[in-house]
Structure formats: C-alpha cells, structure tokens
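Hi X.,

You mentioned you wanted examples for the new student's onboarding notes, showing what a folding record looks like when two proteins sit in one file. Here is a clean example. The first protein comes first, with its sequence line followed by its structure tokens.
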Amino acid sequence: MTLPRPARALAALALAALALAAVAVAARPAAAQAPSGAGAPTARLAAPRIPHTKFTLPNGLTVLLHEDHSAPVATVSVHYRVGSKHEKPGRTGFAHLFEHIMFEGSQNVPEGSFDKYLEAAGANNNGTTDNDRTLYYESMPSNALETALWLESDRLGFLLPALDQKKLDGQRDIVKNERRLRVDNQPFGSRSEVVSAAIYPASHPYSWPVIGSMRDLTDATLDDVKDFFRTYYTPNNTVLVIAGDIDPAKVRQQVTRYFGEIPRGPALTRPTIAPVTLDAEKRLVLEDGKARLPQLGFVWPTVGVRSADDAALTALSRVLTQDRTSRLTKLLVYDRQLATGVSAFQGSNEDVGEFYVNVTPRPGASLTEIERLVDSVVTGLVNAPPTAQEVERYKTFFAVGNITGLQSVFGKATTLGESELYWGDPEHFRTELAEALAVTPADVHRVTRQYLTKGRVVLSMVPAGQLTLVSKPDQPYVNVTPKPAVQ
C-alpha cells in the first residue's frame, strides 16, 4: 500500500538525513564505535498526518477533502469496493470489464467524450482493478475540478442508460485483446493463474484472475453486467476523495450537487474469506513455446493486510532481496552468478496473501541447483533470525520510500481513499508505517518458521518440450500448461 506525506519538507528532510548518514558512515574510521541507540532510528519515526475533512452524504457516499495550495492542481480519486473477489465462478472478469466500460460515455456524456473533456482541460486520468477494489482518478489543474466531478457523478449515477449490447461487445473485445496481449502471448503469461489455481479451491474468490477467462467474457450477457453494476457501483459502496488546491466549502457544495441525488444501492454483506494452507508441496511445470530461457518460482500461501503478520512477512521479503547485499540476491546473482535477477515479496490482498520468490536464471544455470540454494537460505532463516542490521535496513528503505510517495497530491488522495475503503480510517496508513517500523528480527524469524513451510508451490517454467530443464525432474510434478483458450 502506498503511504502518504503531506509536507514536501518532511520527505526532503528524510532523504537528506539518509544522505548525510551515508556520508558519515563512509567517512567513519574502521575502529569508530556507533553512538548509543544507533541502529534503530526508524523506530522513532512517525508518519505525518494528512489534514482532511470527512463527511457522508445521505445516500451513503463517503467523501474526503484534503486542502493543499502548494501547487494549482487537484486530484479526484474514486474508490469502489468491488474487485474480482466479488464475482462468481462462471461470471469472472466483470470488475475489470467495467473499468473499461466506465470510460465509454454515460447518459449525459457522449461516447468518446469522457477523455476529450479532461484532455481539453489539461487533465490526465485512468483506472485500475484488483482483487478487492476498483480505482478511478483524474489529476488536473484545479480550475478543472468541477468538470471531473460532473464526469464521475454521471458515470456513477447514469451509466446504464447508455450501456447497450454494441458497447458491451466492443469493450468485451478490447478486454479479450488485452488478455491475449498480457497473458496468452507473453512468455509464461499464465503463471499467476496456474499458481492461484494450485493454492486456492476453484470456488475460492481469489482463485480466478482479475482479467477473467475468455469463456466467461464470451458468455457474459448485457443483463449480467448491468446487474453487477447495480449491485456494486453505488454511492454507499464508494469513497470519493478530492485533494489539492481546493476550497473545501465550495467543493462540498459541488459534491452535494453532483452526487447527492444518486440513489443508495442495496445493502451488501461482506463475505468472510479465510486464508488457506497447503498440506504438502505442489510441484508444477509450465511449458511455453514463446520462451527461450527457463524461470523458477516459489509461492507460499500466507495472510492478507488485516493480519498482524503482514508487516513481518514484508520485512522477510526485503531481507531476502532488498538490494545486492540481501541474502538471496547476494548468493544467486553476485556470489554464484546463477541468476540475472531474483525477487521476493509478500503479495497482500485484503483477505489473503502469498509469499513469492521468483528467480530468472542465467543461460545454462541449473534450476535444481537454484532451488537447493533458495532452500538453504530459507532454512537459514528458519533456524536463526536475521540480524538487527538486516531488519533495520529494510525499515529505512520502507520508511523513505513510503513517505516520499506522499509528496504529490495524487499520492495523498489515493492513500486517504484506500485507508478509508479498507479500514474506515483515512489515516490508517500511519498505523501501517508504525507496524512496519516495529518489526523485530524475532518477528521475521517467527513468520519464516510459520509460513515458509513445505506447504508451497514450486513452479518450473521451461521452453516447450524442454522438460529436462525442470527443477528436480526426478520428483513427481503436474504439467499445468494451459490448452489453447476459447476465443
């Protein structure tokens, strides 16, 4: 999650402090002793506040206003609590499909005009969809703010009168082409889909891809997608954020004017979705005729952002691959030179998560040897905690990276909105930073032992027909190479 920062000065000071610290370390004589308390400066760092006003319209729309006159710009971000996990088996891809449909005109905005109106005002806009939510945003000169509010309100309240079969078919074809480009025609493009299918039962809300399947996109009817919109695209399922060079009193009147008459939607019951575990290792093989070199991936099911273990798992990933001195990167890329790159990360959704290690081998490198070395590093952290210096380096990178992300009005707007959407607290990002900076080596040790167990997925990805390259080919595996998709 991106963390915000209201004042540029604070971020600049943080960067300056790090630069000065680096110079001081470089100049320090070898025998010099660290001052008392050194090694844990980030533990005393508190996230800044983002001054804001929060109110709710009678129809349930939650609104956040942040005033910042440092530049004559503003951002509108609209956060809908709908993602792929809200879909049903056989009816997947709807959340992402609407991300496209929402730009194609509404009752009072002719088709093709949404972007034109904003571009004429000097604005840029886009949208993103994930498992848990859909986000739309516009960043613009502040004198174009009312145009953005009008456009957003019209597509929230009056999209369906302009949605017909022709428009649905057109956007469905665009999404299918996007899937062909990003999944079907990319080397190992289906890797995330086969991993999710291996970790989660077929009926689990996190088992299918955000983009949906070709068959489900083909089978979607106009009534299907309209019902989906009526259920989730409602004021009471939405957080609206306006940040930047604004007059809060005036903007509040504009929000009431444009959004106030949109009717409340149905009450929604949030499903309870528990994390999963694997009883044993699953070894998978993915072949791809477009690939020339193999890859190797490891995935362990973990927990989502609501778990107290999420921060420690993120710290673990950075201990492994933060930089060239981190354990896996140093061993595989620099010491043994078996890989051109290695990454580890805790992929946290709202309800569940996965811990990933991905390795891109050098030509001719053995996947079996790489797996042995990855396991040796993991075993080392199972047997003993990382050093205080390793965890402290993660905290420093984390704090600076997240705090500097709050310099822009856009960063503050989206962070306020995400914090409100998931936690009901626009400044929950401050809690997240505090939790990250409170992680100890013992915490990292504990989550390594708890989650990086034998219950994992090992995915060997090899060029088609080159099964001799598979990691540990003598062990049983399942070939999960997908059949040609239904177009």
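Then the second protein repeats the pattern, sequence line and then tokens:
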Amino acid sequence: MGVEMRARLFSAASLVPYWIAARGCRMAEAQFPLEQSAAGEFRRQDDAFREWVTADGRSGYPATSGRYHLYVSWACPWAHRTIIVRKLKRLESVIGMTVVDPIRDERGWAFRDGPGHSQDALNGFRFLSEAYHATAPTYSGRVTVPVLWDTVTKRIVSNSDDDLMRMFNHEFNQFTDSRLDLYPEPLRRQIDEWNGVLYEQVNDGVYRAGFATSQVAYEKAVRRLFDALDRLEQRLAGRRYLFGTQVTETDWRFFVTLVRFDAVYHGHFKCNLRRIADYRHLFGYLRDLYQIDGIADTVNFDHIKRHYYVTHDDINPTRIVPLGPIQDLAAPHGRDSMA
C-alpha cells in the first residue's frame, strides 16, 4: 500500500477510549481467550503433535497404504491445504479422509451426517477432541484440523498442516504414479522464505484482523495484510505462479486464503480495504489455480461460509449467512502465456 493510500485511510484507534467512555462500550470478547494478548492481538497456538510418516519407516511411522486417516474440515484453510496435496498427489486411495461438521460449538469439531460431512466410521468418535485425548489424555489446548491418525498405534501422528503437506508430497511416492513435486530442491530456500511471509502477513494475517479485540490490533493486522497483497499483486504481474511456471506448495498456501477472501474475510473479518476481485493479477491467479484439475472439488463454499458466519457468533451474533458474493472462478484467467 502506497504512502498516499495510507494517508487517506481513516484511523479510528486514537478515538477508541473516547467511544468507550462516551457510550459505555465494553471491549470485544476474544474468540479464543487463551490465544489473545493483553493488547487485543490474536496469537495462534503451536501445533501439538508433530511426528512424521517416512518412506523408510525410520520415524516409527512407515508410509503404508491404508494405515493413515485424515480428519479435516472443508471450511478450514489449514486443512484445505492437506486436502489439495492429497488430491494432487493422487493419494485418495492411500490415505482415507473423514470430514467434520462445519458448525463448531463449545464442544469443538463434531462428526455428524450431513451434506459434505459424516460420522466417523473409522473410530466412532463423536468429537475430534476424542482423538486428541486418546493421544494425550491431559491435552488442554484448542482442538484443530487437520489431523493425521495412525490406525495401528491408535494415536495422532500430526496436526501440523505444514508437515502433512511435506509428507504427502514426498513420503508416499511409492504408492502413487504422480511425480509432482511441490517442494523442489532448487526452490526450497525461496519457498521457505515466502511461506513465512505468507503465514505472518496473509494466511494468519486475516485471523489477526478478524480475531483482534482492540482497534489498534485490528488496524495493524489489516495494514500489514494489504501491504503484502499489494506486493504479491506486483510479483504476479510478471509471472504465472509465485516462482514462475511451476506450481509449488507456496501457491497452495496462498490459494486457500485467496479463495475464502471475498466470501468471508472481506466482510466477516473486516479485511475490507479491497476485494481480491479488485486485483487484476491476484484474481486471475486465483482463477488459474482454481481451474487446475481436481481443485474445484476441494472448495466447498457452503461449508466455508456456514462455518465462519455461524460458528463465530461473537463476531456475527445473528448467525445469518450471506448469499454473496457472486464470483465466477471458472471464467478465463488469461495467464496461460505468462512466464
């Protein structure tokens, strides 16, 4: 975001104390109180389980067809990343998958029959928390997706989407005819660098804005977010994907935020300086990725919208789910000839 744009943006932060005093307002309640700073900033918890499945079994978890099961939500961007890599690497017959109900209450992610989600036929769990407590009986953190479950040891291997993307990309190659490599050796340094930027400013940046409980924290997160989006718009003006003509894991890390942006983050999380549809190159890039074979099947806007607008009732007390936006992600993207 340029200096001129910054100057035109209205900052309400300095007025917050006056609003509170004049109107008797209380500060917003946190969606996740244990992940909130005294300054109103959202600070995401670390992943609790980070064991690895390895092709040679040296980790104690050997890559085997049918042994591991993925618990996910279509709504969650972190889980969405693992669904995408599983799809692209053609591992659907190798690693099973069960989808939770997009509506999460105080009991956490639940297994229920419904459109696009089901009961847990593998373990009979009613709630994903049961998998956590089966692995670590004293676990007290927030229960998150994705989860990779080991059917042999009856425990969680990993709830880290970062690690699972890498495992699916490489460790199960003997069980698939896909030679796709989303983390190629020559690009690893750049991939790691950009993954960090995207996580801090974009992927988690939308949550830092949406879950902020102070005006100052909200504005800081939104400005960083749009600074990053503006830089990424410029980067994608001259290349088809983030590193040229090859799609990498970084593109998919970015995609899961972009595809939710106009439908959820723009309004629900107040990330409303611009829509992704207002960016020529980002919107074309989003459509380009969406149109790769199989990807549209991993995007469930019904689950996405119902999860955010119904589950986050502190942000949306009426739980009304908006009808829009109308967006044609199947429209021509015009990026085929880019280097």
